[in-house]
Write a structure and sequence with these properties.
α2 runs parallel beside α15. The chain is mainly alpha-helical. It is globular and about 60 Å long. The chain contains 15 helices and no strands. The longest helix is centred in the last third of the chain and has 31 residues. Keywords: Membrane, Transferase, Transmembrane, Transmembrane helix.
């Protein structure tokens, strides 16, 4: 079982939880300060961490099970654990069930709204993996799914949904949709051959990269709008500028006729961006607030 767990964690790229987890804590800190006029306590942070691990693990496990036949036909993904025979679907389903139990348990320790919103979250976790079979808007659906991380963090500490939390949700959703469009460019030929739907398969790589740039321009606008709507100040502003520069650099790495740096654009830049937004938000609302007394 230990060896299977190791293969499972490698299969779902557990380390890429870094994409969403910082934004969950951004939502928690921003919500607590904006609505509750306080900081999240350690128990809330712990339950949010467990909920995020459960949600993200379940989501990626479900994706690998649902897409196992497609992955087996795609040369890029044929060596993933299930098509390569390293894990059976039933083994992965066990890990998924455990992850969902962890998610439900963590949410139940927070507040009633967190529990009430769980069915919606689980729906998106399952639904996303099917969307590329029938719509090129699958990237937007993924964004709506990952955007639940900051919204969930906000709800976890406030027990409410406000316009500010919605702006944060939409901003992260657009960021996710943008980088997923970039990532999908490497599978454009395979997607067209298999009749799968994506923005690159529908519109071509050049136009797809233009759409990704539009999504990320709106992401930068969303970060700026949060500055206006909340108590965030100069430290967050500095982080926002760094994040905008990272988005710009990400798009300079990937060109319609050269996708060789796609992995750096997808994994490195986006992991750094989420960490930057969290760190500067933390400095702004936690460190500086404590320092000022």
């Amino acid at each position: 079982m230990i060896s299977k767990l190791r293969v499972f964690l490698e299969m779902i790229k557990f380390e890429h939880t870094l994409f969403a987890l910082p934004f969950a804590f951004v939502g928690a800190i921003l919500g607590a300060v904006t609505v509750e006029k306080r900081l999240p306590d350690w128990s809330e942070c712990g339950w949010i961490l467990l909920a995020m691990v459960g949600a993200r693990t379940a989501a990626m496990g479900l994706n690998r099970v649902i897409d196992k036949a497609i992955d087996a036909r795609n040369p890029r993904t044929a060596m993933r654990a299930i098509p390569a025979g390293l894990l059976k679907s039933k083994d992965v389903l066990i890990f998924i069930v455990v992850s969902l139990i962890l998610l439900f348990w963590a949410a139940s320790q927070l507040n009633s709204l967190s529990v009430k919103l769980l069915p919606l979250a689980v729906f998106f976790l399952v639904f996303y993996s099917y969307t590329k079979r029938f719509t090129w808007a699958c990237h937007i659906i993924l964004g709506m799914t990952l955007g639940l991380a900051p919204l969930g963090g906000w709800v976890a500490v406030t027990g409410s949904v406000t316009w500010t939390s919605v702006i944060l949700y939409v901003t992260v959703a657009l960021w996710t949709a943008g980088f997923d469009v970039i990532y999908a460019c490497q599978d454009v030929d395979f997607d067209r051959k298999e009749g799968l739907h994506s923005i690159p398969a529908k519109f071509g790589i050049a136009r797809a990269l233009g759409i990704a740039r539009m999504f990320h321009a709106l992401t930068a606008a969303g970060f700026a709008l949060l500055l206006i709507m909340t108590d965030l100040s100069w430290w967050y502003f500095a982080g926002m500028i760094v994040a905008a520069a990272l988005l710009l650099y990400e798009h300079r790495l990937v060109k319609p006729n050269d996708l060789s740096k796609l992995n750096a654009a997808f994994f490195t830049m986006n992991g750094v961006l989420s960490a930057v937004i969290f760190i500067f938000t933390f400095i702004d609302l936690v460190v500086m607030k404590t320092w000022r007394g």
